[in-house]
Amino acid sequence: MITKIIYGIFIKPITLLPFSILFKISDFLYFVLYRILKYRTSVVRTNLKNSFPEKSHDEIIEIEKEFYVHLCDLIVESFKVYSIKEDEFFQHIEYDDNGLIDKYKDRNLCVIGTHFNNFEFAATSATKAVGREVHALFSKLSNDFFNKRMKESRSQFGTVFIEKNEAKEFFSEKHEKPFAVIFGADQSPTYSKNVIWTDFLNQETACFFGPEKYAKEHNMVVIFTKTIKVKRGYYKLTFDVVTEDPLNEPHGAITERHNRFLEKVIQENPPYWLWTHKRWKRKRNENEEVLPASF
C-alpha cells in the first residue's frame, strides 16, 4: 500500500513530464548523487582504473563525471517509459539492422543485451526492432508492485518478459514461428552459476554461459546489440552477428566473442556503461581456466 502511494504521489507525476523538464531534473540529480551523496563513486572509480590502466587520473575523473551525467539521464528516461505514448517513444529510438533481420527471418535469434547506453529503451522497443515475437529474460524485483509496473512498462510495445527461472520451461515449449530471446549478458554471475572465464577490460571476468548454452541447444543465430547515443534522449540500435552457426562453434567461443564486441563499444565510449555495477566481485577459483581471446 505504501509503495503504491509513493508511486502515485511522487513517481507517476514525474513520468508525465516532457523530456525537456526531465533533463533539468537529471541535472539536479547529478549534483545530488555525485557531488553530495557520492553514490558508489568508490566502485565506479575502481572499475574505471582497473579497466583503463593506461589512462591518467584526470582522464578517469572526466569519464567518471560523464558517467554520472549519463546515469542520471538513464534514471529519468526510465521513468518516462512508464507513461510514454508509442509515437513519441519511437521518435527517440531508431534502428539499423544491416539487413540481418530479413536475412535471418526464418531463424530463432539469441539477442545479447548489455547495460550499455539506454538498455530500457532497447528492451522496450525490441519487438519492433527485430520484427518477430521477442522474449526478454529478467530477474524479478523484490518489490511485487514495482516488479509488476516494470513488466507493464517494458512490455507495452510487444516485448514479453520472462523470469530467468522460467527460461527452461519457455525453451521446452513448441513455437510455431521464429522468435527472439534477449539475454542480459554483462552482469556478475552468482557463485552457483556455471560460467566461462575470460579476460575482459584487463581483468579476469566471469561470464554467463546461458546465451551460448541455449543458442547451441536450439541452433539460434546469436546477435549482439549496440545502442548508440545520438544525442540526449535519442538512441540508435544496431546489430552485429556473433555467429550464425552455433553448433559448430568450440566451447566458449560464442561467450568470448560477444564479450569482445562489448569490450570494443565500451572502449570507444567509456561513460556509457553501467560502472556502478560490481562486475568483478566474483573471483576465479584455481581450477577454473581463463579462455584466451583468440576465437
Automatic annotation (TrEMBL):
Domain of life where this protein originates: Bacteria
Subcellular location: Cell inner membrane
Membrane-spanning ranges: 6-33
GO cellular component term, pick one: plasma membrane
One GO process term, biological-process aspect: glycolipid biosynthetic process
Pfam families assigned to the protein according to its UniProt record, in alphabetical order: Lip_A_acyltrans
InterPro entries: LipA_acyltrans
Keyword Membrane: yes
Coiled coil: none
GO MF annotation: an example: acyltransferase activity
Keyword vocabulary terms for this entry: Acyltransferase, Cell inner membrane, Cell membrane, Membrane, Transferase, Transmembrane, Transmembrane helix
PANTHER family membership: LIPID A BIOSYNTHESIS LAUROYL ACYLTRANSFERASE, PHOSPHATIDYLINOSITOL MANNOSIDE ACYLTRANSFERASE
Identification of the protein by name: Lysophospholipid acyltransferase family protein
